[in-house]
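Task 17 of the worksheet. Students: predict the tertiary structure of the chain below and write it out as structure tokens. Keep your answer in the requested format; marks are given for formatting as well as content.
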Amino acid sequence: MSTRTAEERQREIVRAARTTGSVDVTALAEALGVAKETIRRDLRALEDHGLVRRTHGGAYPVESAGFETTLAFRSTSHVPEKRRIAAAAAELLGDAETVFVDEGFTPRLIAEALPADRPLTVVTASLPVAGARAGTENTSVLLLGGRVRAGTLATVDHWTTKMLAGFVLDLAYIGANGVSREHGLTTPDPAVGEVKAQAIRAARRTVFAGVHTKFGAVSFCRFAGIQALEAIVTSTLLPSAEAHRYSLLGPQVIRV
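Model answer:
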């Protein structure tokens, strides 16, 4: 039997979840030498502390002030779901000519899915987004200056927000680390939250696009309420009843 205390065990579970992206009850019970029910109890305690979200048979880490997944990690998780979401989000472009595209892997996929057959100005803080659109015909890319964050390769701080404040944009495609009806859109880093909030202020329309695991998760910095969104684009893995609850707060909810 394991001699670890509950605290040590839970620390190990969080470390494993953050390293691999998710953990499994059966595998954890085996690795830590305890009963599955003990692991389930640990996961409930960790969920109560906002460190993980439980799933059927396991859990995945919640992003927080102290932990954020890198862009490299995001580009390997839920990829087919993210591609479907990005394609559906790009279809909401309408007659927009000036578009903000947020940092992150799903926004980058949106940038790639935007049409190239008409003039479009893409404003972004993300180096990968700028790179994805820079060579596209009919597209003008404006990269916001500032300090580049290593994990996400996107700019932040006053240079970024000051530049954004000078624009009036038709549409903003926004990502978040957590989305909840109670706390709205959240992200771990205050500097990132400032850029997102400024983009929403600058835009006439705002669309949130993100995978089902973001919903119900709450991170450190709140940058917008659900009411600020015109539309939410996610997948059918978000239950329809939950999607309906979000739609009651204002946005159209599209599940693909």
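Marker's comment: The first helix runs from residue 6 to 20. The chain has a mean pLDDT of 92.
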